[in-house]
Amino acid sequence: MSTLTQINVQNSQLCEFCKSQHRSLFSSLNEKDQHLISRNKTCTRYKKGQVLFHLGTRPMGVFCVNSGRIKVYRIGMDGKEQITRVSAAGNLLGYKALISEQHYEQTAEALDDCIVCFIAKEDFLSLLRPETTFYMDLLKAICDENTSMAAKMTQMAQQSVRQRLAISLLMLKDTYGIEQGTKGDVEINLTREDLANIVGTATESLIRLLNEFKKDGLIETRGRKIRVLNPDKLVEASRR
Predict the structure, then answer these.
(1) pLDDT, tens only, 65-99
(2) Which of 159, 29, 183 lies closest to 168, judged by CA?
(3) How are strands ordered across the β-sheet holding 81-87?
(4) Which residue from 13, 167, 174, 175 is spatially nearest to 88, judged by alpha carbons?
(5) Left if phi > 0, otherwise alpha if psi is -120 to 50, otherwise beta: which for 199?
(6) Is 49 exposed, middle or buried (0-12, 13-18, 19+ CB in 10 A)?
(7) CA dihedral of residues 93, 94, 95, 96 (deg, nearest 10)
(8) Cα gap 188→228, rounded to integer Å
(9) What does the chain look like in DSSP terms, one character per residue?
(10) What is the pLDDT confidence band of residue 186, given thresholds at 50, 70 and 90?
(11) How close are the terminal C-alpha atoms of the chain, in Å?
(12) Total Cβ atoms within 10 A of residue 135
């Protein structure tokens, strides 16, 4: 079994110097609170496949992605993963379970090699003061996430697999673009099984649809990597 590697916090991992800080909820912290989090957090290097937290365990703090990507999923009744979210640099994980004092309802696992910062429960809860911008931003994030989850459930029930794949590719293009620092040519690097679990379909069906998208000039593939060639047509595909 591979072990986690805790690393010394470098300047690039300090909140005030983090390249992803402007995308993080922590960006609205005042200087004093930011200093508290930055100095007290721990940073850990996760290898691909290592788990940040498991379904059913109790949260001891929150996780902020410094680099890499994390998949958040639950296991369906058929025993397959149902990926509900792919988190990139700047994203905060585990805060809803911590605030509600509930066990994790999902599992978070590294999609590739990552660096993730951990903020202990006491330090995080000390930031939750109703008069602060951070407090209001956090409430908005919780509402947005709940709305997004409800929309995803409706999407899964009402849209075709082709539509869901188009939407998922557009979403992943944005997510991978954040990490790669570009909105142009972005390579989505996922196993076909993971992508199928995001879309909510069998791997065989996913591969067939990817081939159709390639023939239509919407995407190109190189190994397991996918590049979106025509976002506008992909948007059209997501609507019909």
Answers:
(1) 999 999 999 988 888 888 988 999 999 999 999 99
(2) 159
(3) 51-53, 107-110, 70-75, 81-87
(4) 175
(5) alpha
(6) exposed
(7) 120
(8) 8
(9) ----EEE---GGGSGGG-TTGGGSGGGG--HHHHHHHHHH-EEEEE-TT-EEE-TTPPPSEEEEEEES-EEEEEE-TTS-EEEEEEE-TT-EESHHHHHHT---SSEEEESSSEEEEEEEHHHHHTT--TTSHHHHHHHHHHHHHHHHHHHHHHHHHHS-HHHHHHHHHHHHHHHHHHHHT-SSS-EEE--HHHHHHHHTS-HHHHHHHHHHHHHTTSEEEETTEEEES-HHHHHHHTT-
(10) confident
(11) 45
(12) 14
The rounded mean pLDDT for the chain is 87
Rounded distance, CA 169 to CA 155, Å?
Answer: 15
Residues in the chain: 240
Residue 52 phi, psi (nearest 5): -80, -50
Per the listing, tokens 């792919």 go with: 86
Q: Look at strands 81-87 and 42-46 and give their pairing.
A: unpaired
How far is it, in rounded angstroms, from Cα 71 to Cα 175? Answer: 11
Q: What pTM value is reported for the model?
A: 0.81
CB atoms within 10 A of CB 125: 13
